[in-house]
């Protein structure tokens, strides 16, 4: 890479079970104002804007155009959108800045899962010929993966419960998290997954600002430099995959440079406790690595924003000096189908 790109600011909403009183624009605008205020930039100073969201959640076509009211699209701006988590919008913005076409970028994403049945909505991600007509929901598919891990001897129900308990205990220090502190294991939703093994359903938004080179140092005292970023995909058919492993996450981490030197922090987008087991193995994370100090997706999982939040949380820890080298991960699709890995570093202290 000929240009060095960094995350220079991050903001997120308070994640809540419902936001019936707010539209997507009203939910997003305070987050945009906050992230711009952290750098002193105005909308007119941003060279490129990219967003991530889902029309399936919003229930209307081209719903992302409404949220441009919160950004301010006049005078005309350079703008793009991905129908995916905001982490993948960040991938596009990072690529744009690498070309030299812009020096700054605003990336934001949002999702309101509360109005409908999220488990049913997410079936629309499945293969339309063989799987989708059967309507297996996201929890049932995650349970298949969890059972495969148990059958392989990689984990058990008590170990999965410990992951949920650790994540929500860590979230006590996160004022934006939806679930904090002790959460009962609850009944089985789909065996072997209990309520505590599954993410909360809720609404939320997040935004980051990227900047290149000297511009990044002007805007942030300690930028979180993106040393590597890569995105890989598993086969669409679940029957063609080993659900106890994630070759795509491993390859993305390798191409992003995660294995060149140890990381001290990892923010993993693992909506189900069993998925953390898969990712820890694939990403070679030992016990010395602090995993999901923010609480992760088990504490707050705003669909279409949770992956971007993982990158933002990792960057924020670098900004405030809590870590030096972090791995951030985002996923999309059933059973960790798509995986994006970013490696972030701060300047030497």
* Strand proportion: 15-25%
Q: Round the Cα radius of gyration to an integer and report it.
A: 19 Å
Strand order of the largest sheet: 3-2-4-7-1-8-12-11-9-10
The number of strands is 12
**Alpha-beta classification:** alpha/beta
Based on CA inertia axes, which overall geometry fits?
Answer: globular
Task: Tell me roughly what share of residues is in helical segments.
Answer: 25-40%
Distance between the termini: 23 Å
pLDDT below 50 for ≥5 consecutive residues: which ranges?
Answer: none
Could you state the order of secondary-structure elements as H and E? EHEHHEHEHHHEEEHEHEHEHEE
Give the helix tally. Answer: 11
The average pLDDT score comes to: 95
Major sheet details: 10 strands, mixed
Written overview of the protein:
The chain is α/β, with parallel strands linked by helices. Helices cover 33% and strands 21% of the residues. It is built from 11 helices and 12 strands. It has helices at 24-39, 55-58, 64-71, 86-98, 118-121, 138-151, 157-170, 213-219, 247-256, 273-282, 306-319, and strands at residues 5-12, 48-52, 79-82, 104-112, 188-190, 193-194, 203-212, 224-233, 265-267, 290-291, 325-332, 338-345. The strands form 2 sheets. It has a 10-stranded mixed beta sheet with strand order 3-2-4-7-1-8-12-11-9-10. It has a two-stranded antiparallel ribbon with strand order 5-6. Strand 5 and strand 6 form a beta hairpin.
Question: What characteristics describe this protein?
Answer:
two-stranded antiparallel sheet, globular, single chain, 349 residues, alpha/beta
